[in-house]
Specification:
- The two termini are 14 Å apart.
- α2 crosses α3, α4 packs antiparallel against α9 and α7 packs parallel to α8.
- The protein is mainly alpha-helical and 168 residues long.
- Helices cover 64% and strands 0% of the residues.
- The radius of gyration is 16 Å and the shape is elongated.
- It has a single domain, classed as Orthogonal Bundle (UraD-like).
Length: 168
C-alpha cells in the first residue's frame, strides 16, 4: 500500500497531523484531510495548491512561522520534528562565513521589523549568498507584493515537501 493510500485511510485528526509538516498551516492540513480520498499524488498536489491559495493571511503566517530563519538551524519549538528535519536539509546550502552569517542575521532582523514575520524563501539548492541577495531585494517590496512573494515561496516549499512525503 502506498503512503497516499495509507493516509487516505487514517482517521481525520491523524491524517491532518501526518500532513502538517509539509506546510505548517493547521487549517491547510485539516482541509486536505477532510477532502480525502485523493486518487493519486497529482490530485493531492493540485488540491494542496488550491487550499493554500484560499487560506487567510493568519493561516499563511502560521505556516511561515513553522520555519527557522534563513541561516539558523534551530526551528521554532512549535515545529514538528519532520518539518525541522526538512528545513535543515533545505538550508543545507547555507554554510557561510562568520561575516555572511552576521549579514543574514541583520537582514532577517530588518525583514521581521519591516514585515512582522520571518523571511521565507524556498532555500533548496540556493547558496547563502543568493538567499541574502533575495532577502535584500525583497526588503524593497511594498507589503502586498511581499506577502504575495512569501505565499508563493511557501507554496513551492510545500510542493517539494509533499513530493518527499509521497516519495514522488
Amino acid at each position: 500500500m502506498s503512503i497516499l493510500e495509507c493516509w487516505n485511510e487514517l482517521p481525520l485528526a491523524e491524517a491532518a497531523e501526518a500532513i502538517l509538516p509539509c506546510c505548517g498551516s493547521s487549517k491547510w492540513a485539516q482541509i486536505l484531510a477532510r477532502s480525502r480520498p485523493y486518487s493519486d499524488g497529482a490530485a493531492l498536489l493540485a488540491a494542496a495548491d488550491q487550499v493554500w491559495r484560499g487560506l487567510e493571511p493568519t493561516d499563511w503566517d502560521e505556516a511561515f512561522s513553522s520555519h527557522p530563519r534563513i541561516g539558523e538551524k534551530k526551528a521554532p519549538d512549535s515545529t514538528t520534528a519532520r518539518s525541522a528535519q526538512w528545513s535543515s536539509e533545505e538550508q543545507s546550502g547555507v554554510t557561510q562565513s562568520e561575516g555572511l552569517q552576521e549579514r543574514l542575521k541583520d537582514a532577517n532582523r530588518r525583514y521581521e521589523e519591516r514585515f512582522g514575520r520571518i523571511f521565507i524563501v524556498c532555500a533548496t539548492g540556493k547558496p547563502a549568498e543568493d538567499m541574502l541577495k533575495i532577502l535584500y531585494r525583497r526588503l524593497e517590496n511594498d507589503d502586498a507584493t511581499e506577502l504575495c512573494e512569501a505565499v508563493e515561496e511557501q507554496r513551492q516549499i510545500m510542493q517539494l515537501r509533499l513530493r518527499k512525503w509521497l516519495i514522488l
